[in-house]
Structures are given as C-alpha cells and as structure tokens.
Amino acid sequence: MTRSSETAAPGAGATLTTRRAESDAVYFSLGTGAVGGVYGLLVALLIPALGLGGDAPFGPFAAIGSAIVAAVASTLGYWRARDRPGQEWRRELPPWKYIVNTVSVVIVHAVLAFLATYALYRVLAAGFIGLPMIPFWAVVLMAVTLGLTVYITYLSAAHMDTQRMSTMLMAFVVIGVLTSMVTSPDPQWWRVHFSRLGTFDDPSSLIFNGTLIAGGLLVTTFAVFISHDLTDAVQRGVLTRPSAPRVVSTLFVVMGVMLAGVGIFPFHTNPVLHNVSASGMAAMYLVLLFSGPRLLRGMPRTYFVVSWSYAGATLASLALFVVGFFSLTAFEIIVFALIFGWISMFIRFLGVTRPTR
Questions:
Q1: Which residues on adjacent β-strands are paired with residue 57?
Q2: Which residue stretches of the chain are H helix?
Q3: Which among 196, 205, 270, 352 could disulfide-bond with 189, CB atoms 3.0 to 4.6 Å apart, if both were Cys?
Q4: By three-state DSSP, how is residue 84 classified?
Q5: The predicted structure's pLDDT at residue 92
Q6: Cβ atoms 175, 92 nearer than 8 A
Q7: Global pTM?
Q8: Distances in Å between the alpha carbon of 47 and those of 37, 51, 117, 320?
Q9: Contact, 146 vs 114, CB < 8 A?
Q10: Integer Cα distance of 305 and 312 in angstroms
Q11: CB distance 100 to 78 below 8 Å
Q12: Are 282 and 321 in contact (CB under 8 A)?
C-alpha cells in the first residue's frame, strides 16, 4: 500500500519551494543582521557626532548599507528562483538576456531599498531632532534595517512574476521622479518642462536620469515576462494571433530603450536625441493601443474598452495642449502617467487570462 506521505498533493512543489524561500530569507536576514550590527558599530566609532540628523546623519550610511545588501539578496533570490514551479522557462533564456534581466531586477531593488531607507531616517530625524546616535543604538538600528531589507528583498526577487514586476516598475518610477521633484534646486522647474528635472548638475538630476535609465532597463526585462505569458495564452487558445508574443514584446523592448534614452540624453546636453527618445516611447505606446484589437484578439472585451479610454485621454490631452489649455509640463506628466497606467492595466488583464491552478 502506498504511504500517504509519498503521494504528492497538487501544488506540493510550489508549497515546498515557497517554504524554502521563506526559510532562506529568514536565515539570510539573520546573518545580514549580524553583519549590519558590526557595520553600525564601525559607523558609530568612526564618525564623530553621529546622530539621526545634523551634520553627520545616520540615514545615509543605513541607506548605502541597505542598497548593498538588497543588491546581493535580490541577485540570490532571483537566481535561485529559476527552479521554482512556473519559473523553469527562465533557465532556457539566452545567457545575455538572463544577465540583463538579473541586472535590472537587482538595480531596481537596490535603488528602492536606498530610497526607502533614506526617507525613513529623514522622517525619524525630523521627529528626534538633536538625538545623538550612541554605539548601542547604531548597532541595533543598523542590524534591524539591513536584516529587514534582506528579508523583504529576497522574497520579492524570489517570487518575481509579470504582475510583481509591473508593480515594481510603477513604484520605482514614481518614487524616483517624486524624489527628484522634491530635491530639485529649482523649485519653479515645472514652469519650463518635465525634462527640466534632469538638467541640473546635482543629485536630483542624477536621480531623475538614473530612474529613467534603470526604468527603461526594467521595461526590457518586463518584455521577457510578457512574451512568456502571451506565448502561454496563444498555446491555450486564448489569443488567436501566434505573432502576438513576438510583436508585443518587441514593442515593449523598443519602449524600454526609448525610456532609457530620455535619461541617457538629458535635454540640456542633446535635445534632439532626448526628444526623439521621448517621442519614440509615446509612439510605441500608441502603436500598442491601436494595434490591440487585431494583435491581442481574445483578450477580455473590457480590456479594449479601457484601452480605447486611454487612447481617448491621450488624444484629448494633446488637443488641450495644442490649444494652450495645458502647459508643456502638464501635458508631459499626463502622458507619462497614462503610459505607465496603461502598462499596469495591460498586465492585470493579461494575468486574468491564466488558467486557474
């Protein structure tokens, strides 16, 4: 008689892999917490007058540490997840493509960890003005900060899929752009144009341009996951056009390259290539919108209704800009928001085409 423990229940592989990922995340976070404690002690001993705020704030050191451990944790999590049920297809990617995908995932996790940690300690510094950072608290806070960063980042990378990546893309771009806005040396930047944020020789412009470059890299990675999901939908007969995965993923890759180009060529250094990149990204968005009814036949009808709504909103914004109702900055921000809003909506609808497991 077969023992019950030897009978594999449905979803047992996925459950086992999830448990393993949770266990790995806990062990990695505990180890990183110990390393973080040592790092915090060194910072406290080597930096005079260390405090939550002031001339020697603790936050930047914690943010740098978080970015480093997030990069390591996301690399491990994303690489080890290739054996997770449903992710085996990633092992079949060409090496160069897998490397690019990994680099983009790592960059986004590292930057998000840096910005989140830095913002957290800026808030704490505002609430504890003048509080000195003695070695004991430096050890405790650094250990907790880096340990939690590794735990969250490892699980995020280990469970990466199309919808999670779309959420990360939105969060990354929004946080990066908002950070650039609030740290810009020109508080009246919005009177010129959106790209004005990337024209200064200071960290705010570095954040803005870097966000666009890394965001473009992430969109190209995003295209790989979209291609896989669309191929699965074609094989199951949900989508009727076999060319959909190749065409849609290619358009997303071009969109990613154009988005990166906006950051690589700031307006004040090369306005021609900057504008070509921005226009190219918008053009790919419009092609994806207007080719949808033919290219993505089989998607839910509601998807096409919403897509036409996005197209209508884009054209209406253009008309209002032409007649002078919108400023250039307002028009750019609206179109930027529409593009990323549509991407998120597209991924949501693509997700509901998956079979129930």
A1: 51
A2: 12-46, 59-80, 95-127, 135-158, 162-183, 203-235, 244-264, 271-295, 301-322, 328-351
A3: 196
A4: coil
A5: 73
A6: no
A7: 0.76
A8: 15, 10, 19, 54
A9: no
A10: 11
A11: no
A12: no
